[in-house]
Amino acid sequence: MSLTNASPEAAARAAKAASFALASLPAADRNAALETVHRALAAARDDILAANARDLELARKAAADGALSEALVSRLDLGKTGKWEDMLQGILDVRDLEDPVGKIQMRTKLDDDLILERVSCPIGVLLIIFEARPEVIANIASLAIKSGNAAILKGGRESTESFVAISTVISSALERTAIPNAAIQLVTTRDSVAQLLAQDRHIDLVIPRGSNELVRYIKESTKIPVLGHADGICTIYLTATADPRGAVDAVVDAKTSYPAACNSVETLLVQDTALLTVFPDVAAALAANGVALRCDPASKAIISNIPGASIRDATAADFDTEFLSLTLAVKTVSTLDEAIAHINTHGSHHTDAILTSDAADAERFMNQVDSAGAYWNASTRVADGMRYGFGTEVGISTNKIHARGPVGLEGLTIYKYKVRGNYQATAGYGNGDGKTPWKHEKMSF
């Protein structure tokens, strides 16, 4: 890893060349590099958190002036309970995962001495552009190394001190490993993003981590494929058959455990028959946890007397808003079909859940909701690479090609076809007279 001052084109070209060497390194070398990075970051904890505190001080001043959102400040805080530990553990979790490179996915005998295989391989060069979230550096560097991909990382100015501190430690650590120097590069110059997005000859995939404005800008500004999501408008559908205690736990967790996260719930759909049964306790628990509720008339009428609750009329725009704060839009629906239609129209195809004891309704919900994650009786906050057992993640994708949902090692590999033959040519094959038919025999692997 290196903090590079090279031009964006030179950095991309160097990363491309390094990607070929990295892709051929044995898993033992890649795992050893991850262990070295883990040790180095653990030893530098105090220095890195001090740098992060300097970023936070400036960010909080900017937020007070209205220049930064509170959600971004929250994402920037590396000292938040468990965040540092999760970052370090994620490196070891990635190390312990099965090697994703070189896995045979299919083997077919086309003819005697003519064998076709489909084999997993790295994508090549990743460009990761992120705002805040300094842990992204360690997460993505770990996943890139393990999956055999080169990576170029560009952080936002609000995380500069943290970015430089973490990257300096990782860079020094990787110099003691077999990882090619240009395989993991960190770019700090402010005007480099547009130039990097133009490097479609050398960069294979762009992964944005940040606001919907950042993601939209990137998608509109490059020919390189983009993996990610713009919004995290997650919805929970609360039905009359939901377990009352479980519903309180799931909804409160989904809204309050980390409101600035993209998998935090932003809309609560309430079945009309649940308004007088399950919903009041859920609403009271949300209010007790400081959640401001923006309600439609039917739901507002039921909970208007909750002591100390912040309740106001919802607007149409509220159901298309990612609040990233302790604010929740509430809407009453009559049927499962109405709930599904609302989610598919107003959601962001990220993660949505139904709380119900009706298995048939749950399965129909999960089949018909057009989202990367569809849950039955679970908090939307489960949508996370670490919680899925991916070690960590480069982000969550709402794409419908390649990777979808939390993207870990598998999402950073593609495949290639390998054919091993004996100088065969195609002219002699076919179904006519004198032709040799293709065998197309499936083989074990």
Automatic annotation (TrEMBL):
PROSITE patterns noted in UniProt: PROA
Gene Ontology terms for molecular function: glutamate-5-semialdehyde dehydrogenase activity; NADP binding
Pathway this chain belongs to: Amino-acid biosynthesis; L-proline biosynthesis; L-glutamate 5-semialdehyde from L-glutamate: step 2/2
Annotated Pfam families: Aldedh
Protein origin, superkingdom: Eukaryota
Listed EC numbers: 1.2.1.41
SUPFAM superfamilies with a match to the protein in the record: ALDH-like
Keywords from the UniProt entry: Amino-acid biosynthesis, NADP, Oxidoreductase, Proline biosynthesis
Enzyme kind, highest EC tier: oxidoreductase
Catalytic activity: L-glutamate 5-semialdehyde + phosphate + NADP(+) = L-glutamyl 5-phosphate + NADPH + H(+)
Domain Aldehyde dehydrogenase: residue ranges: 6-286
Biological processes annotated in GO: L-proline biosynthetic process
InterPro entries, per the entry: Ald_DH/histidinol_DH, Ald_DH_C, Ald_DH_N, Aldehyde_DH_dom, G-glutamylP_reductase_CS, Glu-5-SA_DH, GPR_dom
Function as written in the Swiss-Prot or TrEMBL entry: Catalyzes the NADPH dependent reduction of L-gamma-glutamyl 5-phosphate into L-glutamate 5-semialdehyde and phosphate. The product spontaneously undergoes cyclization to form 1-pyrroline-5-carboxylate.
NCBIfam families in the record: PRK00197.1, proA
Family note: Belongs to the gamma-glutamyl phosphate reductase family.
The protein's name in its UniProt record: glutamate-5-semialdehyde dehydrogenase
Source organism phylogeny: Eukaryota, Fungi, Dikarya, Ascomycota, Pezizomycotina
